[in-house]
Amino acid sequence: MKKYKIISLFLLSISIFTSCIDDLETEPKDVTKTIDQLLEEQSTLGGLVSKVYGSFALSGPSGPGSTDTPGDDAGESPFLRGIINLQDFTADDMKNRWGDNGLDQLTTTSDWDENNKFFRYMYNRIYYTVPQANNVIKQVSVLDFATKDQVISEMRFLRALSYYYLIDCFGKGPILTENDLPNVSKPESTRQQLFSFIESELKDIEEKLPAYIGYGRANKSVARMLLAKLYLNAEVYTGSPRYADALIYSKKIIDEGGYSLTPNFVSLFSGDNNLTSAKNEIIYALIADPLTSQSYGNTTYLVNGSLNGSNMQLGDYGATEGWGGHRATKAWYGLFGNSAQDLDDSDDDRAHLFWSNHLDTDPLKRHNFEMEDYKEWTDGFPSVKFRNSNFSSSTVATSFSGTDFPLFRLADVYLMYAECVVRGGGGSISQALQYVNDVRNRSNATTINASQLTLDFILDERARELNFEGHRRSDLIRFGKFTGGTYLWPWKGNVKDGTAIPVHYNLFPIPLKAIQANPNLTQNIGYN
Asked: Which of 149, 183, 366, 495 has CA 20 to 30 A from 4's CA?
């Protein structure tokens, strides 16, 4: 079992946050002391820095039942849980069977409206994290210590990351900086304006961040990764492709970041991924710990939600609870074969990360390749990609997951580089082919040749490698396969074999409560 350890500022407990809010209005008495002295005497800064980092994985300051966003359910509303709900359950790879109002509409890509609480949760989280980052920037700006620019740059990255999800999910919203009070109702910014703001922020902080600070901290490569993703999706966000720029920043990460593919794919998603060679591939992780940072919204949601004690051995995955909710569809595992036996026989290690139990003599315990009913647990194969069990040491099963979430990792960068080359963004086709085959060889998949390196292949390879990691909806939109009827998947449009969905579903609706709170906001087209 690992401990929640992050170097320097991030070591400080987020639990001190609630007692420090009032200190934001207090002028520091001495701005000439070292950062260590300031943190020792004035825990506010360290607590607030940790709080902003933690806001992407945790729900609140006092355990899994607390929430930073009053009125939102503490279990349902954490940031990472929202990323998975909006990026994977709305897409082709994963479905949820619980039938909860709101979540049901996401998993069937149907009946979306401004009252869906899961859209509100994400929107609220974005506009919770942004002011918290602004508060830290404002407080640090009046201090004097050696790493001042670095700390401010870290907060600007986290603010930009929040805005990245705003531009991707909702397309517009107010831009708040450290010069704005949290309750200011500013005019909404367009998608182009948000894009330009994020781009300028990331380019400015790129050289102010060191090559490496510590695991789970925003460094130079982390900023470059977000910038590369912004450019990769620029045609969707602004109408103008920026694949050449996405390639440049992808190559910077590859050439200068010092990262390497971990030899074993499973280690990336295991409980000790912060201690094994998986750490060498993870560019930026959202930290989890089963004791000191418990949340129903970090990887606990992915692990426990994909397990069911009725036909699975929970201890094999380091869990004590199985919620019986998430299953993959054939749109994902079908990329490895046309039956459960095909998956068993596949040389690709990634094909084995689905639970089919197809050899069990009890038909009530076997899972079906076809998802005839998305609310039936045994329809579809649960993904056991994420697990709370350790890869390189013994495991003590826990209720909450201690597996860190790899938000950014090197394999994604390799596939981004290849996509940019195929899309005409420059680079080398031979190098792109090498990167793709490096990813495939790591999982013992067969190599491909240059003629096979097409956009359709890259989209499928991204599914095989990255599904359930919060990318799929954005990928499908970028490839023009999310809305409409060109590409169908199980339960798209609330139809078993899929049906066309309207083009305005490429964006989520602005939550009604947000519009009521800020009269400057307008609803996205199609949801009026």
From this structure: 149
